[in-house]
Amino acid sequence: MGKGDQKSKKGKIWRGTFGKSRSRKNNSQREHDKK
């Protein structure tokens, strides 16, 4: 479950994608700071 993992939340934040573990409405955190 690292940065490159497509299914984890951290991986989705790193890639800039959205899905079940990372939905657009629930995440109002700063996504670009985690890169």
Automatic annotation (TrEMBL):
This is Ribosomal small subunit protein bTHX. The keyword Nucleotide-binding does not apply. Keywords: Ribonucleoprotein, Ribosomal protein. GO terms for cellular component: ribonucleoprotein complex; ribosome. The keyword Ribonucleoprotein applies. Residues 1-35 are annotated as: Disordered. Belongs to the bacterial ribosomal protein bTHX family. InterPro entries: Ribosomal_bTHX, Ribosomal_bTHX/bTHXc/bTHXm. It comes from Desulfosalsimonas propionicica.
